[in-house]
Amino acid sequence: MRRYLIPFVIFLGLFIFLGIGLQLKPREVPSPFIGKPAPMFNLPVLGKEQTSFSPDQMKGQVWVLNVWASWCVACREEHPLLVDFAKTHSTPLIGLDYKDKPEAAQNWLKQFGDPYRLSVSDMKGQVGIDYGVYGVPETFVIDRSGVIRLKHIGPLTKEAIEKKIVPLIASLQS
Amino acid sequence: MKHLFILLAGLTIGFVTPGVAFAQNNTAPLVSDNPALEKRVLEVSNELRCLVCQNQTIADSNADLAVDLKNQVRQQLSEGRSKQEILKYMTERYGDFVLYNPPFNAATLMLWVGPFLLMLLGLIVLVRQIKQRKQELSKETFSAQEIERARQLLDRKLGNQ
């Protein structure tokens, strides 16, 4: 009996570990930014290049930073959700247009709708690097004191917005 | 070897057509004309993981982000920053995962120690098995009949040859 039990236990152990391994998402690298202040930047506003935007201006309110680009196919997937979010929530949504041409970006917003309070253009991608962006789209939730509380990698889903982002914003605002 | 070849090829193109190769690029050139610097860039890039393709270093990868990060490495090296400073810069932004050679800490403990633990476990099992077998063999006794039969078998075999 023991002879069969030991291999079976080993098999079960491997089965459980591999099963857990399959559920993990290796693409979602834990961000070192959670709980750290959002990196500073000062970038021109898309469409109003004379004005600039810096995260400093958002001090005192909870806001969402969404990294997008007109060349990014997955951004099209999440965009309707963002448009919806902007309609139903008053939380400011700021776009970071990552490594994009401003004209292309503006056309894209015209075509698919503009949910952003404003977008800034990060043409060289330097701010993207500072925020540890490696796969557009990415979304950050930043609290009143300018600390990053959540990072979502890849396109947002209805589930992620309803179960993670909206409750987090509500708890940060209360 | 591959890196050396790419480096040489890049440098050759750079030397043969200096104006063309760089003028077409609005961003930073893919290789500078300083071989010593390029060697350092490769050295540092080989320690950084490309987060888009995950199993490649940024030196091996041609993903957009890898190229950007290589340019970042080149720029910082030419500004005189050390390898350690650059690795720190990258870790602050992308986490420990960006290091191709994972650091030894609580999260990576099993990664580093695991194989040795498994080897130790294997050794323990092996030693126990050998001891057990020895014990079993030494305990085994044979009757006079069995010994006689064994002798007969051995003799017959020898006789046949």
What would a concise description of this structure say?
In chain A, 40% of the residues lie in helices and 21% in strands.
Query: What's the tally of helices of chain B?
Result: 7
Q: What is the makeup of the main sheet of chain A?
A: 5 strands, mixed
Q: Which radius of gyration of chain A do the C-alpha atoms yield?
A: 20 Å
Assembly form of the protein = heterodimer
Helix content of chain B: 55-70%
Number of continuous helical runs of chain A: 5
Q: What sort of overall outline of chain B do the alpha carbons produce when their principal axes are compared?
A: elongated
Can you give the helix content of chain A as a percent range?
40-55%
Our measurement of the CA-to-CA distance between the termini of chain B, rounded to an integer number of angstroms, reads 59 Å
Total number of beta strands of chain B: 0
Question: How many strand elements of chain A?
Answer: 7
Structural class of chain A: alpha/beta
Features:
heterodimer; A: 174 residues; alpha/beta; 5-stranded mixed sheet; 7 strands; B: 161 residues; 7 helices; 66% helix
What can you tell me about this protein's structure?
- The complex is a heterodimer of chains A (about 170) and B (about 160).
- Chain A is an alpha/beta fold.
- Chain A is built from 5 helices and 7 strands, in the order H-E-E-E-H-E-H-E-H-E-E-H.
- In chain A, about 35% of the residues are buried.
- Chain B has about 160 residues and is mainly alpha-helical.
- In chain B, helix 3 (about 35-45) crosses helix 4.
- The longest helix of chain B is centred in the last third of the chain and has 31 residues, at about 110-140.
